[in-house]
Write a structure and sequence with these properties.
This protein is of the alpha/beta class. The chain has 17 helices and 14 strands. The strands form four sheets. The chain has a seven-stranded mixed sheet, sandwiched between helices. Strands 11-14-13 form a three-stranded antiparallel sheet. Strands 1-12 form a two-stranded parallel sheet. Helix 8 links the parallel strand 7 and strand 8.
């Protein structure tokens, strides 16, 4: 019997409710392997859909532009204190609507238009907001690119130092969307200090690994750290900013302001970019930070890494090329530069078989961005479902079968899709029941 997960919505808008139930059925019978996707906790969904959706409160706690904000002040301060404790940060802003607005606010706080910014370009594994040309960060600022070696897939820190010495950027971004190795924040901090650049880490993809202790924490090394609260943290769709309170370069770059670094970031978020914060989402972030501080969550983060490594090992055993030759984190990138088919071909074929991932550029990719030579996949959502190493062995076999039958896919994809549905039935997706 089909359970109506949205009984009130089904009465008010049955057409939309039917679409949501269709999405549930799809996610319940396929493998969600896009590294940036996960399953929000049920408590997060409750907070996101709470009475706080109705509340408007421009400003910051105890400095609002409306009355009646005593309770929401407490909620925002709770989220801030929990984030401080979780990451060891001096200052926290939880108002950014998502990760890109958080990054935009950091630019406004640290640099003027036209300043040089070092970051990994999108084809090399970076993010749009790290200086890519089609984004505000590439049109308002001058990107100085660095990236992994096309042959090894690894960052060359000596080369990064040479680029920084030559270009002397205002900001050095450290963060990626498809770099499968540990980021050495201590090395980056040395480079940034040498050229008097602000060091900013974007940990949207790896925040859960940091909390779990399997990836270094950038907070001690960076001036600013940005993140989202979804992805590995399994929270709402939102962003937050961690920073130092004082600005070590204020005398050099901002001598005429009395605002410290924390205050400048706050001013950049509101009123610089946004109006009223989404208090329902901030409440959900408070829940997220509380859950992330538990040993259960740390164990989850460790298992995400173990699952990714196991999947990488099994694919390497089957003869596949992986960017950097493996993984240290939550994702892998298959490299098909030497194959006649493209990353898009493989991603579409895997989706037909019930494995949902995405085609992706690889370092030195000769193909265009809408075709690519890579496929990116990760283990956060699978691990949230409760899957472990034995399931990774099965998934590696299914990936291999799909890649070997691209020319005659229909029968193979249909069979594998059925097998995946059977497997997923043993691991119900979290977030739909009150006990998960």
């Amino acid at each position: 019997m089909t359970v109506d997960r949205y009984p009130h919505l089904s009465k008010v808008d049955p057409e939309l409710a039917a679409m949501l139930h269709k999405q549930i059925r799809m996610e319940s019978a396929t493998l969600k392997m896009i590294p940036s996707e996960n399953f929000a906790q049920f408590a997060v969904l409750e907070a996101t859909g709470s009475i706080l959706t109705n509340k408007y409160c421009e400003g910051y706690p105890r400095a609002r532009y409306y009355e009646g904000n005593e309770i929401v002040d407490e909620i925002e301060l709770l989220a801030i204190e929990r984030a401080k404790s979780l990451f060891g940060a001096e200052h926290v802003n939880v108002q950014p609507y998502s990760g890109s607005p958080a990054n935009h606010a950091v630019y406004r706080a640290l640099a003027e238009h036209g300043c040089k910014v070092m970051g990994m370009p999108v084809p090399a594994g970076g993010h749009l907001t790290h200086g890519w040309g089609v984004n505000f960060s590439g049109s308002d600022y001058v990107q100085v690119p660095y990236g992994p070696d096309p042959q090894t897939g690894m960052l060359d820190y000596d080369q990064i130092r040479e680029i920084a010495r030559r270009e002397r950027p205002r900001i050095i971004w450290v963060g990626a969307t498809s770099y499968p190795r540990i980021l050495d924040y201590a090395r980056f901090a040395e480079i940034a200090a040498e050229v008097e650049a602000y060091l900013v880490a974007d940990i949207a993809h790896i925040n859960g690994l940091i909390v779990a202790g399997v990836h270094p924490n950038p907070v001690p090394y960076c001036d600013v750290v940005t993140s989202t609260s979804h992805k590995m943290l399994r929270g709402p769709r939102a962003g937050f900013i961690l920073s130092k309170i004082e600005d070590r370069y204020q005398h050099k770059y901002f001598p005429n302001t009395k605002l410290n670094l924390g205050r400048r970031i706050d001013r950049s978020v509101f009123p610089g970019l946004q109006g009223g914060p989404h208090m329902n989402v901030i409440a959900a972030m408070a829940v997220t930070f509380k859950e992330a501080a538990t040993e259960e969550f740390r164990a989850y983060g460790r298992q995400v890494q173990r699952n990714a490594r196991r999947l990488a090992e099994r694919l390497l055993e089957r003869g596949y090329q992986l960017v950097s030759g493996g993984t240290d984190n939550h994702l892998i990138v298959l490299d098909f530069r030497d194959r006649p088919f493209s990353g898009k071909d493989v991603a579409e074929a895997l989706a037909a078989a019930g494995i949902i991932c995405n085609f992706n550029m690889v370092p030195g990719d000769p193909r265009k961005p809408f075709v690519t030579s890579g496929v990116r996949m990760g283990t956060p959502a699978l691990t949230s479902m409760g899957m472990r190493e034995p399931e990774m062995d099965l998934i590696a076999r299914w990936i291999d079968e799909v890649c070997r039958h691209l020319a005659d896919l229909d029968e193979t994809a249909g069979r594998i899709r059925g097998e995946i549905a059977d497997l997923c039935a043993q691991f119900p997706i979290p977030g739909l029941r009150g006990d998960r």
